[in-house]
Design goal:
The protein is mostly helical. The chain has helices at 2-6, 12-42, 47-60, 73-77, 104-108, 113-143, 149-162, 164-187, 193-222, 230-233, 252-268, 279-298. The chain has 3 domains: 1-80; 89-162, no CATH class; 163-301, no CATH class. The chain is globular, with a radius of gyration of 21 Å.
Length: 301
């Protein structure tokens, strides 16, 4: 009976929670923007902002973990998900999949395959926008005299685009990309040409989700001694943000970031009737506590 009430969207309590979630969505958007502006103006680094976003990314999908929580909790946390930041009530792309859901739990939250595909397209669009801005900055750097104050500022900005901007964008969208890929692989429907293409893309993304973090961490480990020099670490500063460079063990932090999201995406895509569904709860609790204990014991920052 309690479950029916939770997902009865005509219920007065649910209607109230819907309005509350919509207001919370805009409030959290404001919090992220305000914190970004304040940290930028004070020039003290974006570690607090990235930490907030990274943890809220994991919290945003908690309702889908079969917790039987308030359905609209997901709607409130969407600002922290790069691809889900803008999700309309009606799907604008892949409308033929509006009635397809990964399982009943996704139906409760209105997350059909069309919306998820639309969210995945948003990641591609954002990546294209970043690339376009990079080109504009490069052109400005070529035109404006490099010895001028403006030229030096543009030059410093261009250095950030060399790796840092793309690394940060990949880190923020890593969870979404991996989740989509694993979910499509488990779903396994290749009845149409579009679904077959999605299956191929999912294989590519899953491969990259395993290889790219390993490659990044290998490069960082090999350059660890050099990165103790301020100028040398600038290209990978977003990966080793504020990490103490006295020991390679402190690189567990970015490594754990990718590992936790990879395994979380796999568990999130587990079918609702799977015998090992309880692993979702176990992993959330153990990974959270293990990370906190590591921070307390090692103090990597």
């Amino acid at each position: 009976m309690r479950i029916d009430i939770q997902f009865d969207f005509e219920n007065q309590e649910m209607m109230y929670m819907r309005k509350f979630a919509e207001k919370t969505y805009w409030y959290l958007c404001g919090v992220v923007i305000f914190q970004y502006l304040m940290l930028a103006l004070r020039n003290i680094g974006f570690l607090p902002l990235w930490t907030l976003i990274e943890y809220m990314q994991l919290c945003a999908f908690i309702p889908l973990y079969n917790f039987r929580m308030i359905p609209y909790l997901y709607d409130a946390f969407k600002p922290f998900l790069v691809s889900h930041l803008v999700l309309t009530d009606e799907a604008r792309l892949l409308t033929e999949f509006e009635n397809d859901y990964f399982n009943i739990n996704y139906d409760y939250f209105g997350l059909n395959i069309a919306k998820l595909g639309q969210a995945l397209a948003l990641i591609t669009v954002l990546g294209g926008i970043i690339l376009f801005i990079n080109i504009i900055v490069f052109v400005a750097w070529m035109i404006i005299p490099r010895d001028s104050k403006t030229g030096k500022t543009i030059g410093e900005t261009l250095k950030q685009f060399r790796f840092n901007v793309y690394l940060r964008f990949y880190m923020l969208s890593y969870f979404d990309l991996t989740f989509f890929a694993v979910m499509k692989y488990i779903e396994g429907d290749t009845s149409t040409s579009l679904r077959k293409a999605a299956e191929i893309v999912s294989y590519i993304i899953m491969t990259l989700s395993a290889v790219v973090p390993l490659f990044i961490m290998t490069v960082v480990c090999r350059r660890f001694e050099v990165m103790k020099i301020k100028q040398a670490k600038e290209s990978f500063n977003t990966v080793v943000l504020k990490i103490d460079k006295q020991s390679r063990w402190r690189l567990v932090v970015p490594g754990y970031f990718f590992f936790r999201r990879l395994l979380t995406a796999c568990l999130l895509s587990m079918p609702i009737d799977n015998t090992f569904i309880f692993l979702q709860y176990v992993f959330i609790l153990m990974s959270s506590h293990a990370y906190v204990l590591y921070l307390v014991a090692v103090k990597p920052y």
